[in-house]
Amino acid sequence: MKKNLLHICKILLVVMVVSVTTMSYAQEFVPYAPDYDEIEKNIAEKGGEFYYPTLLARFKEGDTTLSLSQLRALYYGSIFQDDYDPYNTIDMKDIYAVINKENSSTKEMKDIDNQLNKLIEKHPTHVPLYVCQFINNSNLYGSESKEVEKPYHQFVMLVDAINSTGDGSSYDDAFHVITTSHEYLMMNVFGFSPKSQGLEFNKDNQYDVFEIEENEYGVEKLYFDITRCFGTLRKQHSQKQKKETPLHDFIIPINSAFILELKETKKGAYEIVETSLETFTDTLCWENDEVPQFNNDKENTIEGVFCTAKYCKNEDSKYKTVLILRSNCKNNLAYDSFVQYLGSSSFAPTSNNGAFRGARVTEMWSADDHILMIKLGNFHKMVFK
User: Fold this and answer.
1) Is the pLDDT of residue 36 over 90?
2) Strands of 194-202's sheet, edge to edge?
3) What is the per-residue pLDDT across 224-264, written as a single tens digit (0 to 9) for each?
4) Exposure of 336 by Cβ count < 10 A (0-12 exposed, 13-18 middle, 19+ buried)?
5) How far is CA 279 from CA 70, 114, 230, 257, 263, in A?
6) Cβ neighbours for 167, distance < 8 A, ≥ 6 positions apart
């Protein structure tokens, strides 16, 4: 499968933009997983061939002499930069609107080009930006212009860096990505459509596993290693909570187990004074009435999981995203609940807004909604009128 998928990727890249055989590093290559410790060390070595500021400057110029090893250091080295955001939620509605518009004006396209240049400056390894710039500039400047050639080379270089880490056929041969939106881009490169998605764990690593719609290549599943995305998110989250306690709300990434300790104020509201957040490594199966065992009985706490679930007796059933929690507060609680979807920069309200003492509360969404995080907050005493 490895050779087949790599071959498919090369063909589709030719169709979409350019043959990767024009790149200086094109050769027979056996994919292997990134050594993140080695990359972190190399990109910090001033004067070395992998020094990150130098690699980034060359890449921004569209330098096609960058080796594949240097491109891997560039792409995966971005996770060690201070501004790395594993779930960057860039708002691209305006960009897509102009690109998809049948007759965009020159002014609209120039505005989009300027907007894309600013976004690329801030997010230089976010691959979809180069796809948009390639399409927009093809319409604006012509398909043979230098304004098209540069983003097309940058797109191919980043995709090749991802493609060099595996073939997506298993945990061990998973594609490594620095943000989950790149999973969908890679599936588009292959021409695949996802049927369902689930978060799975193997050897302490986290994977997004996609079941693929029927295709001429017989590919049934694709595996993406997102361990670094989750690890960075949890680290950032933990640091944030230490700085901002007491909290009024708490953000929980998908596939987490959590405990919130609350303190009641004089006005009947509750502040979050202590938090616990751990990775939840199970996929729940509903036919066994399987639910997490909540063992925390400490007063004024909320214990819960935010995870994926499936009705396992039915092979065709799709994964669900579920929030399950139990309150140990002496009062019945009301609260606000919001979810963040992939590709959105904001949180949307949900219907769940309260919990009785000792009761188990469950809220469920389709996994196809691609919910990344949930935010719980504004805890206060439930008042009946």
Assistant:
1) yes
2) 175-176, 221-225, 205-212, 194-202
3) 998 887 766 656 555 545 545 678 888 888 888 899 999 88
4) middle
5) 32, 40, 9, 6, 25
6) 1, 2, 5, 6, 31, 173, 175
Listing DSSP states for 142-182 in one string gives -TTSHHHHHHHHHHHHHHHHHHTT--SSSSTTPEE-SSTHH
Distance of alpha carbon 368 from the chain centroid = 14
- Tokens, residue 333: 């609680």
Find tokens 């007491």 and name the residue: 246
How wide is the angle at C-alpha 51 spanned by C-alphas 45 and 56, nearest 5°?
A: 160
Q: What is the pTM of this model?
A: 0.71
Report the candidate in 288, 320, 287 with the shortest Cα–Cα distance to residue 305: 320
- Both tokens assigned to 179: 């943000």
| Mean pLDDT, range 297-305, rounded to an integer | 88
Mean pLDDT of 117-142: 90
User: pLDDT value at position 17?
Assistant: 40
Amino acid at 202: N
Indicate the DSSP class of residue 269: B
